[in-house]
Amino acid sequence: MRHVTAQEVQINDQSQSAASQAGVAEHVHAITGLREQIRPAVVGLVLLTLLTGIAFPLVLAALAVPLFPHQSNGSLITREGQIIGSELIGQKFLNPPYFHSRPSAAGRAGYDATASGGTNLGPANPKLLDGAKGSIDGSTLPFIGVWQLAVGYRRANGLSPNVPVPIDAVTRSGSGLDPHISPANAALQVPRVARERHLREETLQRLVDEYTQGRQLGFLGQPRVNVLALNLALDRLTPAMPPSHGNRF
Amino acid sequence: MRWVEYVAFLAILVALAHPVGTYLARVFEKQPTFLDWLLCPIESVLYRALGVDRNKEMTPLVYLASFVAFGALGAVFLFVLLALQPFLPAGPDSSHLTTPMSGDLAENIAVSFSTTTTWQSYGGESTLRYLVQAVGLTSQNFLGGAAGLAVGIAAIRGFARTRCSTLGNFWVDLIRGLLWVLLPVALVGSLVFVWQGVPLNISPYAVVHTLEEDPQTIAQGPVAVLELIKNLGTNGGGFFNANGAHPYANPTPLTNFLGLLAIAVVPAALPITFGRMVGRPRAGVVLLAVMVALFVIGLVVCDSFEAADPPRLAGLGLAGGNMEGKEVRFGVGSSVLAAVVTSNGATGSYNSMHDSYQPLSVLVLTLNMLLGDVAFGGLGSGLYSLIMMALVGIFIAGLMVGRTPEYLGKTITVAEAKLVALHVLLTPLVVLPLTAWAAVSPAGRAGLVTNDGSRGFTEIVFAFASCMANNGQNMAGLDANSVFYNVTTAVAMVVGRFGPAALALLLAGRLAAQGRKPTTIGSLPCDTVTFGALVFGAVLLQGALCFLPALALGPIAEYLQP
């Protein structure tokens, strides 16, 4: 930094001499001393850090936490006295009687909400399509490619090969914690869930429609279904499913 | 519907440019505003404590030295805070902090956040304590942003003033930018963010039992403190690893839209401030039009590649565009808008994983940063970088018609042209050698843990372009938390922050010292469509000349590969 400054002194000297040749009067109050700036730099950093790094968060918290206590605390949901998740954070669903979330790259097993992230695989990376034996972060779990995910999704939901699969069902989100699926993805899962829960498909599709959020303000983002909210509603409709650690497909 | 959101974004941005630009001019020309009753007393107290005489102005050198010293002290403060992290109280529990705070990582974070780059070679939820994020990173988001804005205003004064040796007082500009612009907007915006679901707590990470009775640990924290100012200050470093893709950081399409507006609103208003302060409003409008044109081209290209079904997944019977690395609530539209705004806006707060974008979409994002983030751009830096490009165009036009080039009555002599040329050369001089070094050295190639070949090369170009432009977004497949990348990216960040600012201030000093030549029939009119086209052409021309070879090895090669 010293070096840069020294160069600039030279350039600046030239500019000042050029200016004085042009007959420029020095500004009456001009500050030319560098040493005078040490105090404002040091005191300024301390005071402005206190203002923006301590006073600002405290004022914000004093306003926001009483106004929005639920959101401040992470939009956590309780059922029968137990915290079962957050409205905003996706969960892994593998059992057939539940609607399934998207595949996830957060953490080794997916939906690890202490390790958000995507696959970061380029579109031409063969792993994206074909998968790999070890996962991309070197652990022993296999990485399932989009090709295999599409086959699995069709098999799980009894789809013929010519039914297009909504791409969100077979790709991993950026956060790995995506709480939503597309309405098209939910609709394709309706027959499976209806069969597992002994519900009529029309009843279930109505529930999906009820839990479909439209574009915000009519034009922002995409229509979407919150999977956890939908599955909670499903459990209210029919008795909660006993956990069976079955395969995703 | 994507296009409705794109058009709405641009319409709101352009509609806000005039009132915001006028307000900024009033703030920095110390004219009365509606917030004076509240802020003037705080302002006076701060000046007294700092020992600043608000009526004294600085020569360009002193202004620059104050800017550099303030940034350097900020970096030292952050480094010390990071070194003390193990001793800080409050969460999260140490067991969650799995990334060790090495010396080189602390150095990289300190440089990164004090230069508004906020490049992150770490994941927030696995590396940092709440106090570091809330106090250290948040304060530098404010202070770095306000310091950049101050330099932008000082650069404008170079064109606005005649026969004057000073460019304003850095401390006055810094404090007025903080009090009148950043703090009030951040307070209101952050409240909206909490309302929409961004958490604000210091609780331990929540352990929940999911519907399928698996335990899930959910990272918490004072997220809302950081998430709005990271955009408004054109910083972009997020609370969590996934940054704006994380549903806590960016829970709804509305927070996404407002966050993107926060990035661009002040930079898009600064050309209007410029026009007003130099007394030529139409000259400012032309610069804003150039920004919009550059923005729209990138948006159209990026949208067309991301909205199409991925060619390499054809045959699987998929529908819905490229959703790898994108969130359902944003879809292709809000993701592409964020990618183009953040890559142009010197802000790294991406909401989708750019490493999974199609090759020519990545080309757009990389080029936006290599061109110096001039379409809106960083706080302050976007405007003076575009003016530098305008001067290149004027210089070329002057050579073609054989006249002394001038802009707004200021003559561009050899000395000014040298500063402009140095500004143009700075990015290629830093980005290209560092990229080459990383691509041939084992330490550099060791970062390519996810992708290789041309995509891997693109990741490296992207990293250095991002750091040089003080942007901070990354193609996260590159593992940059190594001594090699923590040091080399920091070099790019420092040069990218202080190099262009120094050149802009020195140029402004020379121009302020000049008189103003009267407009004659021979002057190049600077408020016409032709002039806009000239500036637009100069931006793209220098981009193509400097960076085509590097881009050909990266995204273009990937696009063409069978």
Describe the structure.
- Chain A is mainly alpha-helical and 249 residues long.
- Chain A contains eight helices and six strands, in the order αααββααββααββα.
- In chain A, α6 crosses α7.
- In chain B, 63% of the residues lie in helices and 2% in strands.
- Chain B has 18 helices and five strands.
- Chain B has helices at residues 2-28, 36-50, 60-83, 103-114, 130-160, 170-196, 223-227, 229-232, 253-277, 281-307, 331-344, 359-370, 381-401, 414-440, 442-445, 453-468, 483-513, 529-560, and strands at residues 206-209, 215-218, 318-319, 406-407, 410-411.
- In chain B, strands 1-2 form a two-stranded antiparallel ribbon. In chain B, strands 4-5 form a two-stranded antiparallel sheet.
- The longest helix of chain B is centred in the last third of the chain and has 32 residues, at 529-560.
- The radius of gyration of chain B is 23 Å and the shape is globular.
- The relative contact order of chain B is 0.13.
- The mean pLDDT of chain B is 94.
- At the A-B interface, α1, α2, β2, α5 and β3 of A face α1, α2, α3, α5 and α6 of B.
Outline:
The complex is a heterodimer of chains A (249) and B (562). Chain A is mostly helical and 249 residues long.
Q: Report the structural category of chain B.
A: mainly alpha
| Structure summary, number of beta strands of chain B | 5
Q: What is the H/E string of chain B?
A: HHHHHHEEHHHHEHHHEEHHHHH
The general outline of chain A is elongated
Low-pLDDT segments, ≥5 res of chain A: 1-27, 243-249
Mean pLDDT figure of chain B: 94
Q: Using the CA coordinates, give the radius of gyration of chain B.
A: 23 Å
Query: Whole-Å distance between the termini of chain A?
Result: 60 Å
Major β-sheet of chain B, in short? 2 strands, antiparallel
What share of residues of chain A is helical?
40-55%
Span between termini of chain B: 33 Å
| Rg of chain A (C-alpha, Å) | 29 Å
Low-confidence stretches of chain B: none
Strand order of the largest sheet of chain B: 1-2
The largest beta-sheet of chain A arranges its strands as 4-6-5
What percentage of amino acids of chain B are in beta strands? under 5%
Q: What portion of residues of chain A belong to β-strands?
A: 5-15%
Largest interface (CB within 8 Å) is between:
A-B, 129 and 147 residues
- What is the string of SSEs of chain A from the N terminus onward? HHHEEHHEEHHEEH
Q: Strand pairing plus helix content of chain A: what structural class?
A: mainly alpha
